[in-house]
Design goal:
Layout: H1 9-12, H2 25-50, H3 56-66, E1 72-74, H4 75-81, H5 86-98, E2 102-107, E3 110-118, H6 120-140, H7 147-168
Helix pairs in contact: 2-6, 4-5
């Protein structure tokens, strides 16, 4: 559903929509800018990771696993951490396993549970790719702000992230 600043005529007649809290022009401008920046930034970072034969989701999984104890994580926890369904993550891990980046391992004491484990090749790939990725993040995002703006952006976004994590049960 669109969030137009003015209520569209075709929606005005719908009884369930008459009390919709339509966005004003200022709110709409911010919302649309947020959507555009999010999509364009992910697109650009994804394009730049392609030269390393990685998708942005692959890179995220490599980072999450690299920061986990023993460079491994239960698949269910990894799905939660990367905002993916278990099914989608399973398919992605299969592709990454075929590339030698990760390995599935059984969980001791839990016959149904599986770990995703970062392989040495996955670790070396991350070490090779990370400097380029960080340069891209800086060039396309971080360096676009001065120090005060960086702090203000964090102060604005952190409570939203906390709220949304809470809705997912990950506060």
């Amino acid at each position: 559903m669109d969030t137009h600043a003015t209520e569209p005529a075709e929606l005005a007649a719908a009884p369930a929509e008459e009390d919709a809290p339509w966005l004003n022009a200022r709110e709409q401008r911010l919302w649309r800018a947020h959507l555009e920046v999010s999509k364009l930034l992910e697109y650009q970072l994804s394009r730049e990771l392609q030269q390393h034969d990685l998708a942005i989701n692959d890179y995220e999984i490599l980072v999450v696993l690299s920061e986990s104890p023993d460079r491994r994580m239960r698949m269910t926890d990894l799905a939660t951490a990367t905002l993916q369904s278990k099914s989608r993550l399973s398919h992605q891990i299969t592709r990454m396993e075929n590339a030698g980046l990760v390995l599935r391992q059984e969980c001791p004491g839990d016959r149904r549970g599986l770990f995703a484990h970062l392989t040495e090749q996955g670790w070396q790939t991350l070490r090779k790719v990370a400097p380029d990725h960080v340069r891209s993040v800086r060039a396309h995002f971080i360096d676009r702000f001065d120090q005060d703006q960086l702090d203000a952006m964090y102060e604005a976004l952190a409570p939203i992230a906390e709220h949304l994590r809470g809705l997912r049960g990950r506060a």
